[in-house]
Amino acid sequence: MPESRHVAIIGAGAVGVISAIEALREGHRVTLIDPGDPGGEQAASYGNAGWLSSHSVIPPAEPGVWKKVPFYLMDPLGPLAIRWSYLPKALPWLIRYLLSGWTQARVEKTAFALRDLLKDAPLLHRKLAEEAGVPELIERNGVMHVFPSRGNFDNDLGWRLRKRVGVEWMELNADEMRQREPELHPRYTFGVVVEEAGRCRDPGAYVAALAAHALSSGARLVRARATGLKLDGGKLVAVVTDTGSISCDAAVVAAGARSKLLTASVGDSLPLETERGYHVMIEHPEVGPRSSIMASDAKMVANWTDRGLRAAGTVEIAGLAAEPNWKRAEVLRDHLFSMFPNLPRDIPSSRIKMWFGHRPSMPDGRPCIGHARASRDIVYAFGHGHVGLVGSARTGRLVAQLLSGKPPEIPLEPFAPTRFL
Length: 421
Ligand SMILES: Cc1cc2nc3c(=O)[nH]c(=O)nc-3n(C[C@H](O)[C@H](O)[C@H](O)COP(=O)(O)OP(=O)(O)OC[C@H]3O[C@@H](n4cnc5c(N)ncnc54)[C@H](O)[C@@H]3O)c2cc1C
Description:
By secondary structure, the protein is an alpha/beta fold.
């Protein structure tokens, strides 16, 4: 039986709360630390698209992406936009981002690693949801990708790599797609259904329910902002917060895009950046998709949630502090109107909700899961970028295995924080 430890988990997003559940399962005592509500609007885990896409293994940067950088800088409303004012700060991260996608071999390494992390994730999430008493929030009925033409799909390196890592899918021609999705605009003439994937009907409610489950299983929640980690020699003694120190034997840094300060407090300077994303949600929409759809041209997911029809996606590099550019959310709304032409254009603004949040992103598209250099009492679990909801289930298990000194269930070398140090 591994030694039971008092573990402080910093951050109660999807990664933090699932780490808490798995650490409790291992017999550890858990304190969750977050200034906000678990699953609250401050967390990326609240406003994401809700896709549990175990096939989302392709990192954002692919070979040749550098050619698009001028467009990223010129178009503040494009699918990937970089704010000029933030460019000097983002540059080191952007260079690493471009280099990580420089060759197909590098992209492929990430694809295989992410496949290990994400495989079976819809099932793992379903089991967690059942445990937490909210099984209805996780559905495992597949998701659909739609393309203006078959050529768009054939030319996409990502789908060739997905085949190589073992993802399977069903291809649909225009008629078959129309039968499944009668409201979808006819400009989409080719579709792909990935049946292994799932979706979450309400990511915020899911995380809140998981947190409630952790608390009812013995975890404690402290409303505070962690500001540092205190070591005595190589041993962790406390997490320092804005309301005082919390003594503990081990800590997990799962503060999403705000984890950088905490790792720096123990000497690890890691290239974590925020890939800011937006969502727009139409409450009680008149029409929409029957399933959950990713449009290749809009780079956006349209997903039914219990709160409404949510369109989420695209990336803005502008740092943690800059004000949101709500025009980017309006672009998502307009894409939604264009994908589903029968959606009335005069929906009252009171039925349209907008949100923006911070994807915690490492330049190579792989999260950091592993020990701090300064102490094996500190486990890092952040940087999941575009796949943090789907990836949180196995990450929580890996965190618990690291805390207990057990062999991790998948190879952790591709996720080692030391790859950047
Ligand atoms: C528009 C958009 C769409 C997305 N779509 C998907 C999708 O369909 N599928 C998918 O898998 N992923 C998706 N993602 C990515 C996913 O949402 C994130 O990767 C994931 O939510 C990250 O989870 P997390 O727990 O690491 O961080 P978060 O959910 O951001 O949680 C971090 C928590 O840490 C707390 N915190 C911060 N600083 C401190 C501190 N100093 N002390 C204590 N607590 C602190 C915060 O309050 C917060 O509650 C999307 C993201 C966006 C923005």
